[in-house]
Amino acid sequence: MPEYLCAAELIDLARRAETASPAACACTKTSLVGWQSQPVSLDEAQLREIATLLPPDDPEPSFAEYLPGKVKYWSPDAPIAPRYFPYNRCGIWECRHCGRLYLRYTEGGGYFVDRRIRALDSALIEDVPIQD
Predict the structure, then answer these.
(1) Which residue range is the domain that position 16 belongs to?
(2) d(CA 100, CA 21)
(3) How is residue 34 annotated by DSSP?
(4) Number of domains making up the chain
(5) What is the pLDDT of residue 1?
(6) How, if at all, do strands 91-95 and 113-119 pair?
(7) What is the predicted pLDDT for the residue at 129?
(8) Which pLDDT score is estimated for 99?
(9) Around Cβ 104, how many Cβ atoms within 10 Å?
(10) What is the mean pLDDT for each group of 10 consecutive residues in the chain (132 residues)?
(11) Does residue 132 belong to any structural domain of this protein?
(12) pLDDT at position 109, please?
């Protein structure tokens, strides 16, 4: 079971990975700065789950989204708010070759299942409490 990270731990992990000077890698063939359906060009075996944002004491995290202003879910500058959907259902995955970090979760709809992925960017992480 991957270790749960709070927002502060996530920021620290992301900053460490960003300063590691990653090499050129196949994991960057497609830009993943905003949420994307996982591209077929990304080899699943290249990634390993290293942590989770799914709270261990909350079997059904909130579906509330944090999208301030006119920011959209798919926007590259949308905040990463770990207490909000979809981040509160994400695993943190690391590329085995270059060390880049990604957020991943599975979106399930009435007729589909879609594995989604987004590059982790420490500058976008916001620790925002859930509004009731």
Answers:
(1) 3-124
(2) 9
(3) S
(4) 1
(5) 73
(6) unpaired
(7) 92
(8) 92
(9) 17
(10) 93 93 80 93 94 90 92 95 96 94 90 92 95 71
(11) no
(12) 75
| Residue 129, in any domain of the structure | no
- Token pair of 20, please? 């590691």
Task: Flag whether 130 is in a domain.
Answer: no
d(CA 33, CA 101): 11
What pLDDT score was predicted for residue 28? 84
Q: Is residue 81 part of a domain?
A: yes
φ and ψ of 106, to 5 deg: -110, 120
| pTM for this model (two decimals) | 0.93
What is the SS3 assignment for 14?
helix
d(CA 91, CA 15): 17
3-state secondary structure of 43: coil
Tokens 């080899």: give the residue: 43
- The pLDDT value recorded for residue 132 is 63
Best CA proximity match to 95, nearest among 38, 40, 50: 50
pLDDT at 57: 87
What is the spatial order of strands in the sheet that 91-95 belongs to? 3-4, 47-52, 91-95, 101-108, 113-119, 36-37
| DSSP-based helix, strand, coil % in the chain, nearest 5 | 20, 25, 55
Give the residues across from 107 on adjacent strands. 114
